[in-house]
Amino acid sequence: MGRVRSPLAVVAVVLVAGTALTACTSDPVPTGVSVGWDDARSAVQVSWKDDNAPNRISIEGVVSSSPSYVKYVAAHEPNTWSIPTSAFPPDGNYRIAVAIGTSRGGVTSKPARSPMFDTDGPLRPAEAVARPSGKNVVVSWKVPPPEQDFTPNDPLDLPAGSQVYTPVIGVNGQPFKPVGAATTKSSLVLKNIRPPYYFQLRAKNEWASLAGAEIAGRTTRTTAAVPTLWTFGKQMLIRGRTIQQEISCGGSRCSVQQSTSAGLPVVVLAQNRAGGPWVLAGRSTTQPGGHFEVRVNTGGTRSYRAYVPVHSRAGALSSASSSKSYLTRSRLLIQGAGYAGGNVHNRNEVINAAVVVRPALNSTAMLQFWNGRAWGNVKATPMRGGRATISFRATRPGVFAYRFLVPGTTYQGTPVYGTATPSLVLRVR
User: Fold this and answer.
1) Cα-flanking dihedrals φ and ψ of residue 271, to 5°?
2) Residue environment code for 300-338, b if the CB has 16+ CB neighbours within 10 A, otherwise e
3) 314: pLDDT confidence band, cut at 50, 70 and 90?
4) The pairing of beta strand 209-225 with beta strand 197-204
5) Residue 124 — left, alpha, or beta (φ > 0 → left; ψ -120 to 50 → alpha)?
6) pLDDT of residue 149
7) What is the pLDDT of residues 5-23, one digit of tens each?
């Protein structure tokens, strides 16, 4: 075999001493058409044998459409030519046809053909997952199994595992840039990366390249609305929203934009005293628009905050965020209050009034009377186990209003503020 002809070599019909090459329809067919890779695997090297004739080289599709690639090689040039891989459409089956002929005189022999080969492009990586590891992020992905090879062991097949993946990242105001060396593995470590960012893998083999395994690395910002006063033992509703920032890449640069996601985990944490530990009080997930609602069982006075932990799922990694903390004062729960036998009684009858509260404290409750302008104290009565009773005589007819005033207490080391019952109307006949 002679020297390899450069793709930039002049391909022309050679005219010798003013005489033109005469076309012939019965020139011998070239032989030994073979294909292989050049050193850089960027071109298909086709070689053949003939008797120093000019040649026409073309690509023939097998089932696939034939690309419009034709090269004419002069008679004095070596019988070899490099066809760049860009001339082959990906994911097809092809052969190289070599015939004798020129651009002016036409084809003068039947074509000889190389063995058939495929141009299967890289397999697209997918289902990429990112997991934080200290200051780094570990990214893993899956690659689908290859489709059936209709040209097994063809001359251009490369060993399995030759497909490489180059990680690239886009950040605000910047184009995509590589953030690591190409790898043949299915995982890698991204060092010292902070969201928001947009991650991609550029998969490449000898025929083509494509992008896949995208991951949106998002930041989160969480807000919450927490009542400042609530009743002991009742469920309290905390509402909030988590808004994300993510990177969108289009054209030559990437930009940051706001987004929301459903399905992010949300927990509400409670703290009994400043500097104390935060404990789990309730959990939920974000709904469309990033909104969430969490119901918590209340006890004594304590602080609450909503927290969205780091969340990883295929194609997305969201950072953690916390709302501000809010103090919710707890007040006693009035479980029951009223008069024995109802609120209608006869004159000079003994009235028995009672109140029951939670938590079940031991204290002193005060019976009060509405005098038309303000509540005035009538009589104190002991409260045991959260229950207090008092008796008095109805001395005159009319409509009267009483209530119990119950002082605050401490529950599990946290204050529960005192409260008063609603007005207890008494009708005396």
Assistant:
1) -135, 125
2) bbbbbbbbbeebeeeebbbbebbbebeebbbbbbbeebb
3) very high
4) antiparallel
5) beta
6) 85
7) 333 333 333 333 333 334 4
Query: What are the angstrom distances between the C-alpha of 383 and each of 273, 354, 404, 411?
Result: 28, 10, 11, 16
Predicted TM-score of the model (pTM): 0.78
Contact, 272 vs 300, CB < 8 A?
yes
pLDDT of residue 160: 77
Whether 142 contacts 126, CB under 8 Å: yes
Task: Give the range among 154-163, 176-185, 187-196 with minimum mean pLDDT.
Answer: 154-163
Q: What is the mean pLDDT of residues 116-135?
A: 94
Rounded mean pLDDT of 369-373? 95
Cα(83)–Cα(119) distance, rounded to whole angstroms?
A: 13
**CA gyration radius for the chain?**
42
pLDDT tens, position by position, 21-41: 344 558 999 999 999 999 999
Other beta carbons within 10 Å of 391: 12
Cα 397–400–401 angle (5° rounding)?
165
The string of DSSP codes covering 198-246 is EEEEEEE-SS-EEEEEEEEEEEEEEEEE--SEEETTSEEEEEEEEEEEE
| DSSP string covering 109-164 | SPPEEPPPEE---PPPPEEEEEEEETTEEEEEEE-PPPPP-SSTT-TT---TT--E
Which among 172, 191, 308, 320 has a CA at the least distance from the CA of 246?
172
On the question of a cis peptide bond just before residue 288, with omega within 30 degrees of 0, the verdict is: no
What does the alpha-carbon distance between residue 397 and residue 429 come to, in Å, rounded to a whole number? Answer: 5
Which residue type does 279 have?
V
Query: To 10 degrees, the CA torsion angle through 393, 399, 405, 406?
Result: 70
Confidence (pLDDT) at 24: 52
Give me the residue label for tokens 């001395």.
Answer: 395
89 — pLDDT class (breaks 50, 70, 90)? very high
